[in-house]
Amino acid sequence: xxxxxxxxxxxxxxxxxxxxxxxxxxxxxxxxxxxxxxxxxxxxxxxxxxxxxxxxxxxxxxxxxxxxxxxxxxxxxxxxxxxxxxxxxxxxxxxxxxxxxxxxxxxxxxxxxxxxxxxxxxxxxxxxxxxxxxxxxxxxxxxxxxxxxxxxxx
Length: 154
Description:
alpha+beta, Immunoglobulin-like, four-stranded antiparallel sheet, two-stranded antiparallel ribbon, 2 helices
């Protein structure tokens, strides 16, 4: 009985002492050298929480996947030189494909920018020109066939 009381008092005292328990050792650190890809719509709004898929050079499986942050940015750390492929898809019809070239020193080769080559108005003008071009070709072909048919009757 005396040992039971002594054990209970000892356990109570030990439980009140502050100490650090090491169940699973974990560490964290911040490294430099990552590649940040920023994605935004043509009006400047960031592609928030869009799906990202990164493919390593000459690899069949994807290297990393995830989502952009609320500012449309995604960071990854390449582990080999070559041309990496980053695909950002907002799952609403907008898709950005960015090639990222990494040299042997594991640094980004140049400040690369992809997508958005045409502004919204240039794209609309180009679409109208394509439509007029297709219909003009069809009408021209129809006129050619009609003129050819009239010449053969004479």
